[in-house]
Structures are given as C-alpha cells and as structure tokens.
Automatic annotation (TrEMBL):
Membrane topology: Single-pass type II membrane protein
Originating species: Rhodopseudomonas pentothenatexigens
Domain of life: Bacteria
Family according to the record: Belongs to the COX11/CtaG family.
Periplasmic compartment residues: 41-206
Protein name: Cytochrome c oxidase assembly protein CtaG
Keywords: Cell inner membrane, Cell membrane, Copper, Membrane, Signal-anchor, Transmembrane, Transmembrane helix
GO biological process: respiratory chain complex IV assembly
Function in brief: Exerts its effect at some terminal stage of cytochrome c oxidase synthesis, probably by being involved in the insertion of the copper B into subunit I.
Length: 206
C-alpha cells in the first residue's frame, strides 16, 4: 500500500486588519481630495489677491505716503455684462494718470428690466502682470449691487498705480493699463438694512 501523498499547506488567510487598513487609507485619500476641492477656490482667491496673479488688483486703506511721480500711464476702462438686463459703462474710456496719484473715476449702471436685480462684478487688469501694482482704495466691485426696476447709479472706483510699478524694469514698455469689469447676476442676494439702499452723494477726486 503506497503512502498517502503529501498535501499542500493551506493558503494563509488574509486578516481583516489589513483590509481595514487599506479601506481606511482609501477613505482618507478621498476625504483629502474632496477637502482640497473645496479649499482650492478660497486659496486661489487669496493667492491672486496677495500676488496680483492673473491681473487681480490689490486693496489699500489709504493713499501712498510718497508724492506722485512725474511718469504717467494711461488707464483704460472696460465694462461688460453677462446674464443681467443692465446697461453698464464707464464715464470715461481712458485717462492719463501720474503714477502714485489717487484718482476717482465713475461707472454707471442702469437696470433695463421691470424688476429688481442684483449683480456682482468680477474684475482684473491687463497686462496681467500689473495686478500687483494696481491698487484700489474703494470700489463698487467689493459688494453686490441691487437695482430697482429702471434705476441708474453712478459708482466710484478710487485707485492708484503703486510707485513700485515704475521701479520694475519689466514695466518699462507698459504704456497702458486696462481695468476691466464684468457683472454677473446674483441669484440669492444677501439681505441689506434699509439704510444701505440710500445712495451716497457723488464726490470728486480724492
């Protein structure tokens, strides 16, 4: 009688611990990807405001302390509307500005529809590399704008071109800067107090 054939040892069973670890790692990766997608927009906005990337303008609370330079630059103004029944245009198409001087210009919007509408303006400057030098002190683009049916409004932009613009050799050939706005509709405008609907009196240049 022949001896029994040797049997192969049973394959080791993979423990639940390893499966759980793999699943946890996969879940963590998915969570990080989802979190990154939500964080990308505010991070991108912060990056643009800080660096002037993609023509994003800067914000200041006051005028520069130094006197304006003798060098000037032409600033052009562009106005666009996307999805709103508004007429939107600058009061002036372009002006010549001494670098470092604070200037106030106005845009006018008119609601051409028969109902109240609200919009928010997106903005940038070109050339895109000039964004870090184009500084706003006040601008209608900082907040939503709500217009009653048929209402018109003059809205100021108070800005200056930072003197550091002239110190950057890459800007030696830049003669014109274009400030561009595009209004988009706001579907769910933020509620505002009654006093906020009162239009501030128009003022001249600062």
């Amino acid at each position: 009688m022949s001896p029994p054939l040797p049997q192969a040892p049973p394959a080791p069973r993979r423990g639940f611990g390893r499966d759980t670890a793999v699943a946890a790692v996969c879940g963590l990766v998915v969570a990080l990807m989802v979190g990154a997608s939500f964080a990308a927009v505010p991070f991108y906005n912060w990056f643009c405001r800080t660096t002037g990337f993609n023509g994003t303008t800067q914000v200041a609370r006051a005028a520069p302390s130094a006197a304006p330079l003798t060098r000037t630059v032409t600033v052009g103004f562009d106005a666009n509307v996307n999805g709103l029944p508004w007429k939107f245009e600058p009061e002036q198409r372009e002006i010549e500005v001494p670098i470092g001087k604070v200037v106030t210009i106005y845009y006018r919007i008119t609601n051409l529809s028969r109902s109240d509408t609200t919009g928010q303006a997106a903005y940038n400057v070109t050339p895109l590399t000039v964004g870090s030098y184009f500084t706003k002190i006040n601008c209608f683009c900082f907040t939503e704008q709500s217009l009653a049916a048929g209402e018109s409004r003059d809205m100021p932009v108070v800005f200056y071109v930072d003197p550091a613009f002239a110190a950057d050799p890459e800007n030696d050939t830049v003669k014109t800067i274009t400030l561009s706005y595009t209004y988009y509709p706001v579907r769910d405008p933020a509620p505002k107090p009654v006093a906020s609907s009162e239009q501030a009196p128009r003022k001249g240049n600062l």
